[in-house]
Amino acid sequence: MMRERTEAIAAHLAKITGLAFSPEQLSGLEDFLRKRFAILHISDPAVYIARLEDPAEFLEAVDRLTVKETFFYRHEAQFDAFMEHLLPVFLAGAAGEKRPVRLWCAGCCTGEEPYTLAILAAEAGCLDRIEILATDIHKGYLEAAMAGVYSGRSVEKLSPDILEKYFSKKGESFRLREDIRRKVDFKYLNLGGTFFPSFLNGTAGLDAVFCRNVLIYFEKARVREIIIRFTECLRDGGVLALGHSEMLPQDWPLAVQAAGEAFFYRPKKEEPAGALLPPVEPAKPQKRIISPAPPPAEAPGALLLEAERLADAGRAAEAAVLCRRLIKENYALEKAHYLLGLLELARPEKALEHFKKTVYLNSGHLQARLHLAQCEEKLGRAGDAAREYRNLGRLAAARPPGELLDAVEGITCGMLALIAENALKKPSGPDAEKNR
Ligand SMILES: C[S@@+](CC[C@H](N)C(=O)[O-])C[C@H]1O[C@@H](n2cnc3c(N)ncnc32)[C@H](O)[C@@H]1O
After folding, report:
1. Which sign, positive or negative, has the C-alpha torsion 303, 305, 307, 313?
2. 356-400: pLDDT as tens digits
């Protein structure tokens, strides 16, 4: 009986996350559900499935279903090939366009993979020219990643001099250097959803996506859709890095690129990746950007959509021009300021101005409040950051936890409340002094 209930709930979780569960994971889930059913006084799986709308419950359940296996410099041949053969090309291209090289580790677990990239970039002297986004579905792993404290086993592949240079030893643990920790932007993102590519969460216009040893745990039928989405996150010439044993079927629209002793995937040129995804609204004709202002009745909405589309395509400068025009003409002010803030994230003092204006225009804009707090943190103003996180936590907790915030797809009020709470608890977080 309990097994049947577990299977019904597992099927629901599989639909949301894309994961396929092993018998051991199902047993783990069963133990968890037995306890939850007793605490919540329920027996009907449908009641529990409704309860999973609450992000806190969802995250607790998902925590039982993911596999934690990672370490620094895992599969070094691929890191070495990336640093030697691909990163120099990306750096040259990015320099020409005056932008950073942007990398995404999807399914980053406790952070070893993105931090390895950051350490290698520091060693190559280009740390300040790259941005690393790292995402996972497991909040506990993300918290551990942000803390940046590792066991000896996790760092055993690193050479003694790298260990000495980038870590401080605390008892049996190794604490990663602050500048490397700050380099990686950790975020919650469920790969089973349709939240990428999106400029709003940083998953558009990327040079490389690393998704290693993650999709092996997914239902086979979901993998193709996710891979195609990854290719859409890449700018021209970008690559996808999978685990070294994860080979994709030959008839998928990807070309293998050998580099050193490793291989990467690139979208095949002749077959547009988007053709395989569910139909999306056709892009607006390009000339709209340079055409005179359309009639006022439709101008703000159309211009804003166009700005968002340009931003998603990695054309930040053009998107910013449209946003400034909207602001100048007094249209769509809140949204234009918010988008401009996102476009300026690399310059936190500029971004901050736009997020402040967004919040001034709409005090309930929780995503802008999150960015405000993060910008203050980046600028080293711990007190201001703590104040912003407290405001965010208070406002997010006052709304229904399952309420979806449309601008950041897939993020709910409950998740933002958790993010604020965790930020205030972080050892290096804005309330660190108070917590000591
Ligand atoms: C085995 S670890 C791989 C870690 C790292 N990429 C590496 O190769 O060392 C798999 C990670 O995928 C994450 N994961 C599983 N399902 C996910 C999903 N639907 N969305 C995002 N991350 C997911 C797990 O939480 C876990 O951290």
Report:
1. negative
2. 999 998 999 999 999 999 999 989 999 999 999 999 999 999 998
Among 317, 272, 247, 333, CA closest to 97: 317
Question: What 3-state class would DSSP assign to 152?
Answer: coil
Res 308: pLDDT: 85
Question: Which mutation among 29, 105, 136 tests ligand 1's pocket best, with the greatest number of atoms within 8 A of CB?
Answer: 136
CATH superfamily of domain region 286-435: Tetratricopeptide repeat domain (1.25.40.10)
CA gap 191, 47 in Å, rounded? 25
pTM recorded for the entire structure: 0.72
> What pLDDT is attached to residue 429?
56
- Torsion (CA) 108, 381, 359, 325 in degrees, nearest 10: -80
Under 8 Å between Cβ of 113 and 135:
no
Tokens representing 69 are 């296996």
Q: What is the pLDDT of residues 67-99, one digit of tens each?
A: 889 999 999 999 999 999 999 999 999 998 889
* CATH superfamily placement of domain 76-275: Vaccinia Virus protein VP39 (3.40.50.150)
- Which residue's entry shows tokens 């066991």? 151
Rounded distance from Cα 274 to ligand 1 centre (Å): 25
Rounded to 5°, the CA angle 129-431-114 comes to: 30
Among the listed residues 113, 105, 102, 118, the one whose alpha carbon sits nearest the alpha carbon of residue 177: 118
Span from the CA of 118 to the centroid of ligand 1 (angstroms): 19
